[in-house]
Amino acid sequence: MFVMTLTLVSDFSSVLLDLKDKDIILSKPVTGKTLSAAKTLHIMIYMLYMTIAFIAPSLIAGLIRQGLLFFIVFFIGIILMDIFIVVITALLYLLIVKFFDGEKLRDIINYFQIALVIVMSVGYQVLGRLFNISEFYGIEYTHKVWHYIIPPVWFGGPFELVLKGNRETYIIIFTALSILVPIISMIIYNKFTSAFEYNLQKLNETSQNYKSKTKGFNYLLSRLVCRNKEEAAFFRSATNMMKKERNFKLRVYPSLGFSLVFPFIFLLTSLKEWRLEGTAPIKVYFSIYFIGFMIPRIISTIGFSGNYKGA
Known about the structure:
This protein has twelve helices and no strands. It has 311 residues and is mostly helical.
């Protein structure tokens, strides 16, 4: 789920939000609803191919070790998960394009993509460690209501229900959520595809009141830290790129977010080795240097721009 979400955000958001083909295709007897459905189907098929490439070894091993029933449950669960990821992401984009327009809309979409990447990556790391931390403190797993809002838990329900015969109420609810939520979300998205395509036109709009608020500060800062006009010009160019280049922010900002969060994740992992009578591992603080690993990536990325012809 983590890998597929990152793939969708990085590779296919441009397909969902594409406006280049609309003027050509919609001039034919094709509705916006049909165009949106075609784009969504294209994304789902490609993601299904990628998913199969990732899980084919697991499917084969599961078929050999666990049997045909496990294979069927696993494969159907993967298909439902892909549908859920694509449709929920599209619905979130629908909400964004409905309430914003112009430059603000482009910025909101960019920050939404960055936040989604960070949340999925951090959640992937944290959820996998929760059980280890619980075992360390001697806490047994007990079902909580908030578990219903964690989609990966839903898709574990069918395995417990079908393969192990666990018919507890929360297992049945998880199984129902894993089946019904993707289907219902797809029905909802299908109902609002026309509105989605209509609101996408806002991406072509330019906000008249959109002005840079930090131009004066950047100019003043360049005067303070740069030794000559040439250096100041390059400084302002790099600053404007980091501030306005959306592709740059999508490539770099998630890495910055990881560098701030991952040291704490590593610190939580090291708790397993602590003892009540002992002290924390001496070398735990080395995880802080993880922040420094991101600096070369940022420096190397600054040299590339989607609008290089304007340089």
